[in-house]
Design the sequence.
């Protein structure tokens, strides 16, 4: 059984930065595609970023258009932890951020139903 625990959320000023963490237990995160999603009040959960690994520890990442160039997804094998670096956030980035793991791996899925495991979420609030 894979368990995901997010941390690092909080209040941040517009234009600032913060780093979200997703600690993975039960399996190495490299066995999955690891994604970040977010859900704002009254809105549906939306894709933010996804990362997957191939042989030789080469990784591939995809991003939602709204965050590309500002957010960066990465992983630390030694800590079995996936990160989302949030740079230059704006109030529209305010949401609960969720980490998720998908068995689809190299497909790097962007739809929530394609993910098998979810964390409990961490709140990110961006003030203007």
Sequence:
């Amino acid at each position: 059984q894979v368990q995901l625990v997010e941390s690092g959320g909080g209040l941040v000023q517009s234009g600032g930065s913060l780093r979200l963490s997703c600690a993975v237990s039960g399996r190495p995160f490299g066995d999955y595609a690891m994604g970040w999603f977010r859900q704002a009040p009254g809105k549906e959960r939306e894709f933010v970023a996804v990362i997957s690994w191939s042989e030789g520890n080469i990784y591939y990442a995809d991003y939602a258009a709204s965050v590309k160039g500002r957010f960066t997804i990465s992983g630390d094998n030694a800590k079995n932890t996936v990160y989302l670096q949030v740079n230059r956030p704006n109030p529209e980035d305010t949401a609960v951020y969720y980490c998720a793991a998908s068995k689809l791996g190299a497909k790097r899925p962007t739809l929530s139903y394609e993910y098998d495991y979810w964390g409990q979420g961490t709140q990110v609030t961006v003030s203007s």
Notes: The chain has a mean pLDDT of 95. The CA atoms of residues 14 and 107 lie 33 Å apart. The longest strand covers residues 17-25. The two ends are 40 Å apart (CA to CA).
